[in-house]
Structures are given as C-alpha cells and as structure tokens.
Amino acid sequence: MAGRLLLRWAALLQKRVASKAAWDRMQERRNRAVRGAERRGVSVEKLAARLDLTPGWVRQVLKDDQPPEVPTLEEAA
Is the pTM above the cut of 0.70? Predict the structure, then answer.
C-alpha cells in the first residue's frame, strides 16, 4: 500500500516538476520576481550574482525578452 502511494506521489511530482510547461511556469515566476526586485532597487549585478546568471541575461529578463536557449548536449555535439 505504501509503495503504491509513493509511486503516485512520484508520478505527480514528475508531471508537475519535470514537464516543459512546469519548467516554463517556474521560469516565468522567477522572471516576475527578478523584475519586482529590480523595481525595488536591487541592482542588476546583485541579481545576476545571486541567481548565478550573467548581467546580460538579467537585463534581457528585465526587458521582457527571452534569453537565448542554452543548447543541450545532444545539440552541441
């Protein structure tokens, strides 16, 4: 019984977290938070350092542009 419950939980998490739609929603929430922090006086450099992104990427998020896609290993090869 506990095994089936854990399997259902794992399946739910897989669908909610690993799907492209979930990833996109998470990124959009992050981008809204970045824009809000910048409006409240947090510098681009501090945002970039905290998020482990480049200042250029943060500026693109602030302009509401989509940052360039990072190629996957398969695409790079």
Answer: no
